[in-house]
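Subject: mismatched residue count in predicted assembly?

I count 828 residues in my input, but I want to confirm that the predicted structure covers every chain. Input:
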Amino acid sequence: MTETTVTHTGQPDRPKGWRGITADWASDQRAFKNVSWGKAMMWIFLLSDTFIFGCFLLSYMTARMSTRVPWPNPSEVFALRIGGSDIPLILIAIMTFVLISSSGTMAMAVNFGYRHDRRKTAILMLLTAALGATFVGMQAFEWTKLITEGVRPWGNPWGAAQFGSCFFMITGFHGTHVTIGVIFLVIVARKVWRGDFDTGRPGFFTSRKGRYENVEIMGLYWHFVDLVWVFIFAFFYLW
Amino acid sequence: MVDVTPADAVPPAEVGEMELYHPHSWWTKYVFSQDAKVIAIQYSATATSIGLVALVLSWLMRLQLGFPGTFDFITPEAYYQFITMHGMIMVIYLLTALFLGGFGNYLIPLMVGARDMVFPYVNMLSYWIYLLAVLVLVSSFFAPGGPTGAGWTLYPPQAIMSGTPGGQDWGIILMLSSLILFIIGFTMGGLNYVVTVLQGRTRGMTLMRLPLTVWGIFTATVMALLAFPALFVACVMMLLDRALGTSFFMPAIVEMGEQLQHNGGSPILFQHLFWFFGHPEVYIVALPAFGIVSDLISTHARKNIFGYRMMVWAIIAIGALSFVVWAHHMYVSGMNPYFGFFFATTTLIIAVPTAIKVYNWVLTLWRGDIHLTIPMLFALAFIVTFVNGGLTGLFLGNVVVDVPLSDTMFVVAHFHMVMGVAPILVIFGAIYHWYPKVTGRLLDETLGRFHFWVTFIGAYLIFFPMHYLGLMGVPRRYAELTDMTIMTESAHHLNSFISIMAFIVGFAQIVFVFNLIWSIRHGREAGGNPWRATTLEWQTPQTPPAHGNFGKELPIVYRWAYDYSVPGAKEDFIPQNVPGAFAPSREPA
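Triage response: the counts match. Full output below for your records.
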């Protein structure tokens, strides 16, 4: 389908300036040379998804800035009592560490994928999935803790009702992304393990052959979800 | 021969042959089909069906407005439900789905010289999720309390309060769920359209050789992928407000003497999110129409499109500008005057690329060999209708003129002209133009001309008088206008007249649907290229194109899409896949 080969299609005398830029972008067959369909599609999807998270975060900021009721202090709300003292944001810090580490294992999986090292790729992908699942698990713990303390989407004991609404909505939407990522990591890891990308076994639904590039495309999604978390962390927890 | 372009060196194929899914059964061939052409027909049929529902709803509204008090079953609540569902269906489920899902799916792979969309399976899912969205929408008609009556803009707080039909029943929940589904389904299709245009073209098909139809659909799809997220977020948040009692959009509010649970939300936030989607949406509908009409005019006037590059840049400029004008829908919501100034300025700047396009269409016609075929008639009707609706847009884009005209029939007349009638005229023209490719037969000419004249003149007789009503101050969205002082005797007569015209125009559409069905079997045989057009979809070995579109070898493109009436050529059209050595070209360097 998309065997990519390096090709030089340009004529020697290319137009200069804006014309040249246009000619490059508009060039024959493909706008992005040596970018496969799947990868292009993932990038464009992520661009669209960026707008979704952007709208969520902007709406949250609008709510937070326009409310006349005090906003609960995240440092206190998200503190855990460990060894007799409240440590602010400790759980969130661990969650963030776990998720960022998972990006590291994902990057290694991509690398081993391109070396066709099935075993290491699959193990690293499963490790990434495990870290992702740990993240979601800790998020579930955090939700449970807040709910037992009386935080609800429509109100909380400490201040603006929008605190709970925004918290559950944004972390919930992000957590859904992580969960979907974990599921697909496991699926792709299984394919790698079984050697589907070496034998050219057709996909169950699409009946198309997969390639080791799928690991990288999976990685793009995973890094994106990770990056979004950094913004949520900065804007929701640190603000 | 004059003006001979040297035969282009054709670059080697950069992408290997596409793995096509070959269906094994009737079900995978015609129902769960991964072929973009079948998906296009499914999209079009679904969109047309739900569009007919919206047509009937508009009749019911006109019954009430034209003959107030005559029809007992049209209560004010029912009237609001009709208005809401009519607007929502027409804008999203008909126009967006038909242009992008219908025409996009059919034309993009054929016009860029691809065998199919790049990910046919995802493309198939797109349709089925769209169908699910439509079914959820339809189900709200049968839900307790009926569909939502919040107006197509669904403004909170009223959209989810008990005074609005469906506000505290199922209506609004089903509406929001349906929109969320639509956006998910559309995204799957939209990604396909964009990647197919960017990465899946045949050899020789540079972006600057694409027919303008593809440019219009492509740009609109990119815009939709960036604009629908805002609607998605707004729908999720309103759904939470309604279902969980959050207060994103709901301020502290007293209803029927009772303080509601909500507190501290911002209705204006919803308006910003909605219109950040809503304004680009206007151009998501308009740009495919611009593109298609350019090709119709060029083909049926046997002349190359005037200023092709300018047309492309104008499409891109309109697409980009439409993201920075959204608050012109919110002048009456109140805003800092500097913002009003900013949004009025950007709004008026859009008139520049738009006017360029109109001039170029007219200049394409100038001294052309105009064939008054039915597609051409619709294209000409589009130009005048669009200019008309565009000019009233200049009125409404200015803050000081907009404020008194806001929420009057003038606004209704404006947007129906510019994004209702105008794009639908293009859709009709496009159907008459491409129907022979889809079915192998031409639509019946007599019925077609009847359909055109009744629709075109009728649409003017409906919407032109509305401008006057609006200038008199007749408000929109009022179920009952009888006892108002502004409603003079003549205004009532005008309203009745508009209603009668609406029934006649609606009837003409039923004739059109009949023509669509009848001509499948009884239409005149068309052959592969009845309009003698240059673009690739007319050069397929079979008509209708077979699975994989182009037979064994993909076509190679040697020229732009507009080599009509080239001096020195034998025919008055030279298809895109004819090498430069065989025929001259007028492609701009």
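Chain B is about 60% helix and 0% strand. Marking this ticket as 'not a bug'.
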